[in-house]
Write a structure and sequence with these properties.
alpha/beta, two-stranded parallel ribbon, about 50% helix, about 10% strand
Length: about 240
């Protein structure tokens, strides 16, 4: 009801995101609960102008994940979510589960991977068929003085940038990079000025949207795997 009142464009069905490492029986019960909640959400949701995304759960058990995806594919209107990944497991485990799911995605519905936002995971996710992502990472690390850049992460609070009057990222076109130096950004963080976190948040968000633009171009040019290798070699992510 709250989401209906807010008029959110995309709204999530209720789900239980079981912790990484739980046993099979708990994961099964959590998935059963998620599917019962989904049925109730579908029955309640009446606003055709809003998109209700069901969520694929099942922890790290392939049969549960495929069972969940089978139901989600039948009831999803325009798109669906994949939850319960990036919850503390090694990245390789997440990629393995995405590889299990990828051949079974419906082709005409948007695929949204929840809670994933590091540059390397964005690229690997797209390679495995993901369309959409969300994550607090770019703004969270910005508040701590860390920036994504085209040459790797930079912690602007560090003393190395005290007299560094170059831009944060020479390849970035954001407001922060066009107008401020690393030395000034470092100063803002060291005097606890909130503008520092705001500027780095602007930069990190623009950095990731630009990365997605580059990924789209690489797909058009049929060189996504080559782009991944070049990007990771350059940035070290």
């Amino acid at each position: 009801q709250i989401q209906n009142n807010l008029g959110s464009d995309i709204m999530m069905a209720f789900d239980e995101c079981s912790n990484y490492g739980v046993d099979y029986e708990y994961a099964r019960k959590a998935l059963d609960r998620t599917e019962r909640w989904l049925d109730r959400c579908i029955a309640y949701h009446k606003n055709d102008k809003q998109m209700l995304f069901p969520i694929v759960q099942g922890n790290f058990y392939a049969d549960l994940r495929l069972k969940a995806l089978e139901k989600v594919a039948k009831v999803a209107d325009v798109g669906f979510s994949i939850g319960g990944l990036s919850v503390g497991e090694p990245k390789e485990k997440m990629y393995e589960m995405l590889d299990v799911l990828a051949p079974h995605y419906p082709e005409n519905k948007a695929r949204y991977l929840m809670g994933v936002g590091s540059p390397d995971c964005l690229i690997e996710g797209v390679i495995r068929g993901i369309d959409m992502f969300d994550c607090v990472l770019p703004t969270r690390i910005a508040r701590n003085g860390t920036a994504f850049t085209s040459t790797g992460k930079i912690v602007v609070k560090n003393g190395a940038y005290k007299e560094d009057f170059t831009t944060l990222d020479a390849e970035c076109d954001c407001y922060c990079c066009k107008n401020f130096t690393k030395a000034y950004l470092r100063h803002l963080f060291n005097v606890d000025e909130i503008l520092g976190a705001q500027l780095l948040s602007i930069h990190n968000l623009r950095y990731l949207t630009h990365l997605m633009e580059q990924i789209k171009e690489a797909i058009k040019e049929n060189r996504l795997l080559e782009f991944r290798d070049e990007y990771l070699a350059k940035t070290g992510y």
